[in-house]
Amino acid sequence: MTDQEFVSVKTLDEKLKPRYHKICQHFLKRFNAEPEFYARAPGRVNIIGEHIDYSGYGVLPMAIEQDVAIAVSTNSSNTLQLANSSSSFCEFSCPVDEYTIDKSNPKWFHYVLCGFRGIVEHLKVTTPRGMKVIVDGTIPPSSGLSSSSALVCCAALATLHANNLKMSKVELAELCAHYEKYIGTEGGGMDQSISFMAKQGMAKFIEFNPIRGVDVKLPEGAVFVIANSCVTASKAVTSHFNTRVVECRLAAQGTGMVVWVTMEITSESACKMEAGAHGSRLTGAGWGGCTVSLVPAASLQNFLQEVRKRYYMDGVLELTEEECTRALFPTAPGVGAQLYVH
Ligand code: ADP
Ligand code: NG1
Ligand code: MG
């Protein structure tokens, strides 16, 4: 298998059915019919290499199980009807050929429009099909696990399939990396690349210009644990991210890159946890978000218990059991984007 392959269409297996059944119920309730197909694209955790992809340097992410899934039917009204399974995200609809992606006031559906626009413009689709859409996300938004790119990638894949078109995974990654910039963030291509190109059980060393990846088997006997600080940062809303892009691009000229990598490794040692992790670090853009810790399998329960106690339940935050389970969880490298039918 290579990244030049297409995203295949699979039948939903038993394990996936309960989640997709729920999405189907939302769709039925909203649109009075079953969806024709589903697309899903995963979030990611980055193991090393933060704020360097947009300067063209390699990164080592892995896809996580948490994803954005979209249920879709085409319509004959030449409109996009976008709804969300979460009541936090309001409905939106627009003609397929008349919309703006408003950088000055970014909303969730603008990320969908980034993916839609990418396919339509790149493949010069003169009469794109209208779509009815329900979005269902399990990645905590604005937490550095790349919910934004999962949404853009999923929307692009859904648009591609709805219009009976084909592009390879790597082409889709290049396209989505470019079109996510329409939301206003000058990011690199890490998130979109891993979202399309990830293989089950593998991290990926990804390089850029052009995007290419090599699968990396992770060490056995160790587990990656994600811990959400529960502090969110919306990268398209503030100027922090783009300011950091400018700073890092300047630093990357000359010998600056060496300094940055040294800083990252040093801060990893500083973050090393007393709860039994080999090491911990912030993942994603930062200003809140998640840490990822490499924990020996034998110490996993102790690690989870200590972090629960010290940060989530009796320590800094006062979360319920359920909230804590959503914020602190072990993860394994998951599969990239997929298309499903019933
Ligand atoms: P990150 O990529 O680190 O999660 P970003 O700030 O880049 O954070 O993107 C977060 C934005 O993505 C949210 O503000 C929202 O607009 C959009 N988003 C993420 N998940 C969903 C979802 N399930 N449904 C709708 N929009 C979502
Ligand atoms: P998050 O934090 O998931 O939005 C962003 C960028 C990545 C990368 C990381 C920092 C986008 C779409 N994502 O991710 O390209 O630069 O920050 O390593 O811009
Ligand atoms: Mg993002």
UniProtKB/TrEMBL annotation:
Q: Which PROSITE patterns match?
A: GALACTOKINASE (PS00106), GHMP_KINASES_ATP (PS00627)
The answer to whether keyword Cytoplasm applies is no
- List each copy of the GHMP kinase C-terminal domain by range: 273-312
Keywords, alphabetical: ATP-binding, Kinase, Nucleotide-binding, Transferase
Q: Which residues form the signal peptide?
A: none
Tell me the Pfam families matching this sequence: GalKase_gal_bdg, GHMP_kinases_C, GHMP_kinases_N
Where the record annotates domain GHMP kinase N-terminal, the positions are 117-197
Query: Galactokinase N-terminal domain: which residues?
Result: 26-73
What the record says about family reads:
Belongs to the GHMP kinase family. GalK subfamily.
**Know the name of this protein?**
N-acetylgalactosamine kinase-like
Q: Which gene encodes it?
A: LOC106816947
